[in-house]
């Protein structure tokens, strides 16, 4: 096990593109391959916390991730981590709705999560699910992780969404000299077969524009993925077979070699 976990932000400011689903199942795939994984829900809406079956944590009294991000020196983040059958979880809390605004006036308001996660050891991977916005919480995830997993739908709207995300990455890199944020993989998510014309041309667009320098994965729309979510876990923690396990396992293997610094 490495001293510093490999950290990964799952980000795309567009809502409903599969971020939380991809985050949960990527964490499940990494854990299934024997890695120690911490899954962090940075979305104030707490959907991933629900997907991990931890709804009660979302409305728990302080201290929560909200308090830890507000005052990293006062709270040991390890005390907030919850056991899950597949991995550990740092749940979101309803108090986090105030955070985006409060971070604006805080010193180092974009580096809070980095400060917190610098104190978290004992894992191979930390996977951070981002909110559907390009605000300060997403900036926190990008600066803390410096590695980006981008879920995107096979829809025309993804072209602009990715353009804006990459611009935000450039802005952060320009403002923080010590930071290099690497796009590590794209997951075209929730792809629905048979493909219509838009999905087909967008799958080609992802291949043409990205596959030369980062791998493009495809996770199809599967009721089994939804059922596993409703049962509080990933498809790897479920008894039900799902034909998307192979693709997610390859995604996990890709991050393992990135974490080892090995070219593929
Ligand atoms: N591969 C998939 N198979 C089935 N349903 C999916 C899949 N990916 C996403 N969904 C569904 O699509 C919706 C949006 O996904 P979600 O992960 O919550 O997106 P985001 O986090 O980007 O808002 C959810 O209802 C989720 O269950
Ligand atoms: Mg989400």
Automatic annotation (TrEMBL):
Q: Which residues form the AAA domain?
A: 8-175
What Pfam families is this protein classified in? AAA_31
Q: Which SUPFAM superfamilies match?
A: P-loop containing nucleoside triphosphate hydrolases
Q: What is this protein called?
A: ParA family protein
Protein's organism: Natrarchaeobius chitinivorans
């Amino acid at each position: 096990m490495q001293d510093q976990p490999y950290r990964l932000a799952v980000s795309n400011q567009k809502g409903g593109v599969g971020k939380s689903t991809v985050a949960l199942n990527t964490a499940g795939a990494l854990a299934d391959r024997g890695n120690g994984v911490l899954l962090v829900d940075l979305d104030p809406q707490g959907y991933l916390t629900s997907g991990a079956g931890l709804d009660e944590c979302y409305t728990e009294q302080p201290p929560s991730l909200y308090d830890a991000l507000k005052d990293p020196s006062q709270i040991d983040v390890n005390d907030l981590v919850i056991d899950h059958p597949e991995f550990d979880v740092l749940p979101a809390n309803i108090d986090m709705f105030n955070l985006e605004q409060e971070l604006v006036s805080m010193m180092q308001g974009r580096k809070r999560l980095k400060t917190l996660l610098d104190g978290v050891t004992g894992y191979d991977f930390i996977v951070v699910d981002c909110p559907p916005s390009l605000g300060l919480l997403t900036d926190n995830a990008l600066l803390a992780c410096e590695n980006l997993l981008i879920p995107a739908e096979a829809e025309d709207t993804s072209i602009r969404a990715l353009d804006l995300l990459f611009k935000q990455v450039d802005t952060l890199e320009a403002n923080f000299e010590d930071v290099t944020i690497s796009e590590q993989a794209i997951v075209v998510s929730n792809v629905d077969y048979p493909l219509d014309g838009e999905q087909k041309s967008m799958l080609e667009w992802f291949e043409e524009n990205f596959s030369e320098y980062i791998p493009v994965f495809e996770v199809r729309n599967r009721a089994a993925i939804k059922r596993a979510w409703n049962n509080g876990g990933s498809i790897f923690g479920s008894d039900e077979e799902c034909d998307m396990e192979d693709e997610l396992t390859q995604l996990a293997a890709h991050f393992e070699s990135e974490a080892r610094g090995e070219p593929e």
